[in-house]
Design brief:
rod-shaped; 434 Repressor (Amino-terminal Domain); mainly alpha; about 140 residues
């Protein structure tokens, strides 16, 4: 399939998804209404500046418009989605999670109380490995 035709198809589909027309989108980007038909007629790409305006307006990456990926999400969208996944635990939920981990690791007595020497080992481990732990948490582990 011709790459220009594929791009035009993506642009048309995206404008339809957005509930607008290609002409309205082009006008709102400050581009000429004939841009898409010119692309089709000449089988040529517009300038990078024009493509950037279109991708920004349609809220997709240039790579998506060029057919290099099927992922429409911009880095900003992905970052927003990721931040929604990283909601902080409440203190009580964090305590519950740690309590279960400590019990499974055998660091507590029969009443679930942390052994004093265990607390020191855990504290030292966290302080010594804080950079690594931050990376692990940052990677969703």
């Amino acid at each position: 399939m011709d790459d220009v035709k594929e791009m035009v198809g993506r642009i048309r589909a995206l404008t339809k998804e957005k509930g607008t027309t290609v002409n309205k989108m082009l006008v709102s980007c400050g581009l000429g209404k004939s841009l898409i038909s010119d692309m089709e007629a000449r089988s040529s790409y517009p300038t990078v500046d024009k493509l950037a305006k279109i991708s920004e307006h349609l809220d997709v990456t240039l790579d998506f418009l060029l057919g290099r990926t099927d992922n429409k999400d911009t880095a900003e969208k992905l970052q927003t989605q990721e931040s929604k996944l990283k909601k902080p635990l409440s203190d009580s939920r964090a305590a519950e999670v740690l309590q279960v981990a400590f019990v499974k690791a055998g660091l507590t007595d029969e009443n679930g109380m942390l052994y004093e020497d265990s607390a020191k080992v855990i504290s030292d481990f966290i302080l010594t490995n804080s950079d690594m732990l931050k990376k692990l948490v940052g990677n969703g582990i």
